[in-house]
Amino acid sequence: MELAKQRYYWWNRWALAAIIVLLLVSIPIFTILVKLFAVPGESWNHLVDTQLLGYFKNTILLLFGVAIFASLIGISAAWLVSAYDFPGRRYFEWLLILPLGFPAYIMAYTYTGMLEYTGPLNSFLRNNLGIVTKGSLIDIMNLPGAIFILSITLFPYIFVISRSSFLQQSRTLQEASALLGSSRLRTFLLYLESLQRGNRKYAQANSMSKPFERIKAGKGMKFVFFGICTTIFLISFGLPLLQIFYWVNLTWHKVASWDFLLLIYRSFSLAAGTGFAVVVLSIILLYALRLSPFAWVKNITKIATLGYAIPGAVIAVGIMIPLLNIDKWLMSVFTPQSVGLIFSGTLFALVFAYIVRFMAVGYNPLDAGFQKIGIHVNEASRLLGQGSMRTLWNIDLPLIKTSMLSGILLVFVDVLKELPLTLILRPFNYHTLATKAFDMATNEMIAESANASLVIILTGILPIIFLNRLIRKRNG
Fold it and tell me: Closest by alpha carbon to 301, among 215, 353, 363, 372?
């Protein structure tokens, strides 16, 4: 019995399937690594001599600028809604997550339209206060503007992580800090150290743990805290969304047509199909790890989810090169007219790239679901003589159906928002909501582009509501 169990764990068809999935999703990564050692062309040499240093400098400044400002906004807001009780606090807990549904490129051209000479702010100053400006009220078409846009769209990630960390801290820590004479500000720096420490923890008896206790803000500070959170919300979501609604009200009758409905159908179908494919492949990876709990299988699953850390444009290039080579080989074997660009010129390339890019998005909810039900279910099923496939179908999948739906939903929204990868790999004259919005905005049709943008934003709010419910449930 023990030998049979060892053979079952050491090698099975699920491990083989996981290796195949790994090989497929690693194609773009492997391609990019190979091309790093290729001989550069004249264009690259010219770029190195003239532009590369400037690109590198701007990238570093952008990274540090966004990291600093997004962290400042996210951690400060998380501390206020976690440590203090003031009017509207419960609403700000989820309102400050909503900017996650606003893609950065939509935020960028929305603010550009708001601040331009014919925008609402300039028009109000000019028509009501007699203040006339030349050009845009504030020029954001520069590096500081890019830092601003990315910071107000990305800070919710830091807000969610910081808020969760603050809520998990024990009240005992608060009381100890107060007894030692530390102020609330000093205690907050203490919490930052705990947040930075991550998974490295100190031991504490469960009986000593007390719930985190919020402090009721004073009369004056209530308005200050409310004003800070309101300002962050308006700048990062409220005002841009109102501008989008205003543009939609002006242009919906021009855009609303069967073509626009077809655009929505295509985008939703593409996103839903990709979400389903990602969940299926994630189940293969996780079930292989579940049946073969060895380090090499665990490493396979980690490598297969690396695509989320790679920019979409890089993944697009890494996929386009091998698929073009395959199509060229097919056209050399068969007649070009009968074959065509089967892989690189169809939706296959786009869906393939989406799967590589968003594998981690669908993988993580399923991983949490499998961990929650434990391994004992599989062991009991095998003792009763059931195979792995029947156990998966009849027992595991019904138990993780919520995680599956969550994975599909999260991938669905990310695919719907993805722009650079879609622009590069989409078939000729094939539009999604993201590419249509971008195409109209770049052609000076910002108001018309708001219709597609609104669908993306409203759809992006769905997983945010789910995320907030998950945090509330986990932290009581």
Answer: 363
pLDDT above 90 as % of the chain:
26
- CA–CA distance, 221 with 367 (Å, rounded to integer): 42
Q: What is the pLDDT of residues 370-381, one digit of tens each?
A: 887 767 777 776
Coarse DSSP helix, strand, coil percentages of the chain, rounded to the nearest 5 percent: 80, 0, 20
Find the length of the chain: 476
Classify residue 335 by its DSSP letter. Answer: -
Task: Name the DSSP class of 180.
Answer: T
The model carries a pTM of 0.81
Burial environment of residue 262 by CB neighbours within 10 A (0 to 12, 13 to 18, 19 or more): exposed
Measured at the CA of 389, the angle between CA 383 and CA 390, to 5 degrees, comes to 65
Smallest CA-to-CA distance from 379 within 297, 293, 291, 294 is with: 291
Q: CA-CA distances (angstroms) from residue 327 to 99, 336, 345, 426?
A: 41, 9, 9, 16
**85 sits in which H/E element:** strand 84-85
List C-alpha distances in Å: 168 to 209, 213, 473: 10, 11, 12
